[in-house]
Amino acid sequence: MEKMPWNMRLITRAVNYITAIKVQIVFAGLLGIFLTPTLADYDISVNDNNNSGGSGQQSVSVNNEHGVANIDNNNGWGSWNSLWDYGSGFAVIRPFKKKSCIVHKMNKEVMPSIQALDMLAKKNKLQGRGQEGPPPKSLIYSVKPDKVNNLDQFGESIVTMCKGIPTYMAEEIQGANLILYPEKCFRVDILWILNISLCEEAMEN
Questions:
Q1: How many Cα atoms are found within 13 Å in the side-chain-facing hemisphere of 55?
Q2: Helix, strand or coil for residue 131?
Q3: 3-state SS string over 183-200?
Q4: What pairing do the DSSP bridges indicate for beta strands 90-95 and 167-172?
Q5: Residue 201, SS3 per DSSP
Q6: Least confident interval from 2-6, 68-72, 112-116, 137-141
Q7: What is the pLDDT of residue 34?
Q8: Quick one: how far is CA 190 from the chain centroid?
Q9: Which residue has the higher pLDDT, 124 or 168?
Q10: Is 131 a residue whose pLDDT tops 60?
Q11: Euclidean distance between CA atoms 105 and 95, whole angstroms
């Protein structure tokens, strides 16, 4: 078998090198396609003059990889941030005017899954959907007066959001009627699909 001339060997190595680079580029592109859906962001206008807890501009960020969703409502003094950690099973709401964090367990029978939240946010963004759909579900919580000392029990995401901020625990009030104490509750409305009311503990009785 004849030995390949040195110039042909050089050309062959160059071709193999270029081919390898092309394969890496194609692979990186495909990897980007598969990873992109793990993080989605939506900016949605939520205008409701009758509800100060849900008016303004809502920004929804869904991270499927880490199982975390962020909902930010920008409405001046009535602004708030909410984080849902599907991994730990806890959610937190941080009202701007109260300068505190309020943590509660996620009621997964009422609160949408992270996949459903992602889909609903995308649908509302694309269609500009308002309140013509089915009525939103409601959750009412009683906020405990004592501050939480250990944030670690709620997971890393909530620790990051609430570290150094007064944090309180809220418990769901089953079968409660918001009409009995609307003036003592802070209300958060999310994408016309869920209403969350955070009420003083005294209102539970």
A1: 10
A2: coil
A3: HHEEEEEECCCEEEEEEE
A4: unpaired
A5: helix
A6: 2-6
A7: 43
A8: 11
A9: 168
A10: no
A11: 17
| Widest pairwise Cα distance in the chain | 96
Token code pair at residue 41: 């962001």
3-state secondary structure of 35: helix
The pLDDT tens digits for 153-188 are: 999 999 999 999 999 999 998 876 655 655 578 888
pTM confidence score:
0.70
- The closest alpha carbon to 42, from 65, 72, 83, 86, belongs to 72
Structure-block tokens of residue 142: 């009683």
Q: What is the mean pLDDT of the chain?
A: 75
203 residue type, one letter: M
Question: Which amino acid, residue 182?
Answer: P
* 84 contact partners, CB below 8 Å, separation of at least 6: 68, 69, 70, 71, 91, 106, 111, 114, 117
